Structure formats: structure tokens, C-alpha cells
Automatic annotation (TrEMBL):
One of its GO terms (molecular function) is transferase activity. It catalyses: L-threonyl-[protein] + FAD = FMN-L-threonyl-[protein] + AMP + H(+). Pfam families: ApbE (PF02424). Its EC number is 2.7.1.180. It comes from Clostridium frigoris. This is FAD:protein FMN transferase. The keyword Ribonucleoprotein does not apply. Keywords: FAD, Flavoprotein, Magnesium, Membrane, Metal-binding, Transferase, Transmembrane, Transmembrane helix. The keyword Membrane applies. It is an enzyme of class 2 (transferase).
Length: 350
């Protein structure tokens, strides 16, 4: 009788210890879990990886904000503010929301800084190519020549007082596809901060914005895509804390004809996909709108002009991957990355 009781007590003790261990394990682990959500908006796949008590709420609010931006700035939605600006081109100014006004005035700054390599009036040419869409094709050189006549960001008139945008010539259209994801990422970061989130990785179609560090206190590691390889194969990785990492690459959207790749970054001075020596242009900055606005233009400018421009901008760095498998970086990036592919050569200075 006594023996059985001891046995029982032992079993109960073992069960209690076991259950306690499971509970410790579960709650301990729970604390370390990120909530990961994927969603489609801005014409691309997006992912939010968020840690914190209010992660779910922050994610819901973020998705709402991104979709709101998409509704205002999509060139594919007839009711968007961008579409309305284009409909009124050559006719009258269109009053827009603060979001759209902010993006367009920032974009114009980057058009000027890149001396027109980045040009938000590129839309009529982008539409001719339809890259990544049904009907993608090589347009005739005549069609391109015709449309090039109306590509000029200097024809965008902005009015700070009534927050209106006016395109001087009929048939001109604005495309903020080269900068809107950056703006949206910055807005998501604000939503996260408002919800007390200290650790998150915001990925809007490859536009990365790291908030804080990982929960173990180490920097977020971001890989820079190998333009010659399949997605997920990196040239190098960088560790970042509170930084945006944005890349424009020839592998994002393209089609091939007789082995030649036609990608979605168009050189506004030729009307054809950019053929500079760059295949991947990464910008590291505090705000993602700056990284996005600069990465597209810098891609077109080529290594020499790109490095010169980025060196002049305080707090912004660049990593450029070239056709001849070289890696160029601005001075602030030296020693801050790890090359992970042996197929590329690091060039120190141009
Ligand atoms: P992604 O959209 O792949 O992240 P980018 O930020 O470089 O890459 O933007 C490319 C998009 O910008 C194109 O899909 C097009 O809508 C638009 N675009 C293409 N060429 C230019 C250009 N020269 N200036 C401004 N926008 C451009
Ligand atoms: Mg861009």
C-alpha cells in the first residue's frame, strides 16, 4: 500500500515537472516568435516580419496603408489620383492627397539629381513595352521616337498651395512605380513604431526596410541578389539596423528575344531598357523613398556617374554590381559587407 503511494507520488511529480518544462519551453519560444504575413499590393508580393505584442494589429494597419497608397498611385486603376493627373494632362491641374503630392515632389527631386535618368513621365514608353505584362513586345523604333517627345519631368508642374499636379502636354503620364514602394515602406515603418514595435523586417517587393535589430540584438542580414543567378543566390550580404536597402535590377521583370534580355528599367534618353554597365544597383539609406528614387536612376547612370552622385549625398551609400561581375561600393560601405559569391571581384574605387 505504502509502496503504491510512493509510486503514485513519483509519477505525479514526474508529470508536474514534464508539464512545467513544456510550459517553460512554449512560453519561452513564444516570446521569440515573429509574425510573418505575405500580401499582394503595389503590383508585387510583399512580406512583413514583425515582433512584438501588437504585431498583428500593426500588420493589419500596415496592409491597409499600403493598399491605400496603391489605390491612390496605381497607374492601372482608373480611379487613382495618378490616372486623374494623366487624364487632365495638357488641360488642367489635378488636386491630390498629401501622400501623392509628397511622392511626386520627392520624385521630381530625384529626376533632377539624376539629370533625367530617373524620369517619372516615362509612363508612355513603359506602356509601349508592357514588360512583365500580357502583350509585352519590342516596340518599333518609330513608336519609341514619337513617345520620347513627350517624356520630360520638367513638364510636371506642382503647386504646394493647393497640392495640385499638372502635366503641361496632352498624353503625358506619370509613373511612380520606381519610387512608390519606398514611400510605402516608410509609412509601414511609421505604423510599426506607433504600435510600439521595435523589431521588424519590411519587404515590399524586394524593397527592404529594417526596423531595429533582430530580437537577439544582432543586425538584420540582407542579401544582394546575384543578377546572373536564380532568385535567392547572393553576391554579398550586409548587416543593417534601422536602414533601408533597395535594389533595382535587370532580373526583376523582363522578357527575352533571341537570347537578349529586355528588362523594365528604361533609359529615358533612348526609350530602350538601360544598357549601362550596371546590372544591380543597391542604395542603403535611412528612408526607403530615397533609396527607391535613387536606385532606378543610378542603375541607368552607370558606375562612374552613380558613385560620384551617391558620394555627394550625406547618409546614403551604394553597392553596384556590373556586367563584368565587379562590385563597386561608396566609401561609407567599405568593410560593412561580406562577399558570399566567388564569381565576383571587389573593386576598391573607380
Ligand atoms: P522595381 O519596381 O523592380 O522595384 P525600380 O524601383 O527600379 O524597380 O522601378 C522600376 C519601375 O519604374 C518600372 O517598372 C517602371 O514602372 C518605372 N520606370 C522604368 N524606367 C524608369 C525611369 N527611367 N524613370 C522612372 N521610372 C522608371
Ligand atoms: Mg526605384
Amino acid at each position: 500500500m505504502l509502496l503504491i503511494t510512493i509510486d503514485n507520488a513519483l509519477i505525479i511529480m514526474i508529470i508536474v515537472i514534464f508539464v512545467t518544462l513544456i510550459l517553460i519551453f512554449l512560453t519561452g519560444n513564444h516570446k521569440k516568435l515573429y509574425i510573418v504575413r505575405e500580401f499582394y499590393s503595389l503590383g508585387t508580393n510583399n512580406q512583413l516580419k514583425v515582433y512584438g505584442k501588437k504585431a498583428t494589429k500593426a500588420i493589419e494597419e500596415s496592409i491597409k496603408k499600403v493598399c491605400e497608397i496603391d489605390n491612390k498611385m496605381s497607374v492601372f486603376k482608373e480611379e487613382s489620383e495618378l490616372s486623374k493627373i494623366s487624364i487632365n494632362a495638357g488641360n488642367k491641374p489635378q488636386i491630390v492627397s498629401n501622400d501623392t503630392y509628397y511622392v511626386i515632389q520627392k520624385a521630381i527631386k530625384y529626376c533632377a539629381l539624376s539629370k533625367g535618368a530617373f524620369d517619372i513621365t516615362i509612363k508612355p514608353i513603359v506602356a509601349l513595352w508592357s514588360i512583365g505584362k500580357e502583350g509585352q513586345q519590342i516596340p518599333s523604333s518609330n513608336e519609341i521616337k514619337e513617345k520620347l517627345k513627350i517624356i520630360n519631368y520638367k513638364d510636371v508642374v506642382i503647386d504646394e498651395n493647393d497640392k495640385s499636379i499638372f502635366l503641361k502636354k496632352k498624353e503625358q503620364e506619370i509613373d511612380v512605380g520606381g519610387i512608390a514602394k519606398g514611400y510605402a515602406a516608410d509609412k509601414v515603418k511609421n505604423v510599426m513604431i506607433k504600435n510600439g514595435i521595435k523589431s521588424a523586417l519590411i519587404n515590399l517587393g524586394g524593397n527592404i526596410l529594417a526596423l531595429g535589430t533582430k530580437i537577439d540584438g544582432t543586425p538584420w542580414s540582407v542579401g544582394i541578389q546575384d543578377p546572373f543567378n536564380t532568385r535567392g543566390e547572393f553576391v554579398l550580404t550586409i548587416g543593417v539596423i534601422n536602414k533601408s536597402v533597395v535594389t533595382s535590377g535587370n532580373y526583376e521583370r523582363y522578357f527575352e528575344v533571341k537570347g537578349k534580355r529586355f528588362h523594365h528599367i528604361i533609359n529615358p534618353s533612348t526609350g530602350y531598357p538601360s544598357e549601362s554597365d550596371i546590372l544591380g544597383a543597391t542604395i542603403i539609406s535611412d528612408n526607403s523613398i530615397d533609396g527607391d528614387g535613387l536606385s532606378t536612376g543610378v542603375y541607368i547612370m552607370g558606375v562612374e556617374k552613380a558613385i560620384k552622385l551617391i558620394e555627394e549625398i550625406e547618409g546614403v551609400e551604394a553597392i553596384l554590381i556590373t556586367k563584368s561581375r565587379e562590385i563597386y561600393v561608396t566609401s561609407g560601405m567599405e568593410g560593412k559587407f561580406t562577399i558570399t559569391s566567388q564569381d565576383f571581384v571587389y573593386k576598391n574605387g573607380i
